[in-house]
Amino acid sequence: MDEVKTLPRPAPSAEERFAAVHTACHDTVYRYLARRIIPAHLAEDLTGEVFVIVWSKVLDGAHLEVPYVVAIARNLLRNAYRASAKASRLRAALALTQQRPAIHDPEVALGLAALKEAERELLLLTYWDSFTSEEIAVIFGTSPGAIRVRLHRARKSFAAALESESTQRGPLGKAARP
Q1: Looking at the domain covering 103-178, what would its CATH class be?
Q2: Alpha helix segments (H runs only) across 10-132
Q3: Could you write out the three-class secondary structure of 70-103?
Q4: How far is it between the farthest Cα atoms of the chain?
Q5: pLDDT at res. 103
Q6: How many whole angstroms separate alpha carbon 66 and alpha carbon 79?
Q7: In Å, how far from its chain's centre is CA 83?
Q8: What are the domain boundaries of the chain?
């Protein structure tokens, strides 16, 4: 019986590797940026910049996962904010009032607004973007254990903010009398 010889498959080209990373990450990166930037066209611009960096990393032979690409987006976002201090304060203020996705429950929106930026981002990455502690650890550049501890603290802060909001409003949802 003759054995059929198969030729080894050639390694995927840089273009194929980039296309795979782009397909796997683009929507997640865009949503991550769009929720934090107003107007939305700036999120499109930064998403493009993320994939310029991804392209150079793919050319260098890197194998990129979604959390690593989101970490690139996070760093670019921070750099953009640093470049224009006045614009960053304005964007942060607008982001609190016009978060994407919209938070329809006013108590939840107020609870999130009462949190520190890092706590709010951690809760949004966990519950809006559905990242695991391990993935968030890559994004933040820390250990999964540290993320789990921070997430626990963020949940406690959020619960305290919600409780504070409900006691100020009273049992029927109306503002309590002073």
Answers
A1: mainly alpha
A2: 14-34, 40-59, 66-83, 85-97, 106-113, 117-127
A3: HHHHHHHHHHHHHHCHHHHHHHHHHHHHCCCCCC
A4: 93
A5: 67
A6: 20
A7: 20
A8: 11-102, 103-178
Amino acid at 27: D
Residue type, 161: A
- Token pair listed for 28: 């997640």
% of the chain exceeding 70 in pLDDT: 79
The pTM for the full model equals 0.56
Report the C-alpha gap between 51 and 30 in whole angstroms: 11
Instruction: Considering only residues 103 and 25, tell me which one the structure prediction assigns the higher pLDDT.
Output: 25
Cis peptide before 144 (omega within 30 of 0): no
Of the candidates 74, 24, 65, the one whose C-alpha atom is nearest the C-alpha of residue 47 is: 74
Q: What stretch of H or E contains 138? A: helix 133-140
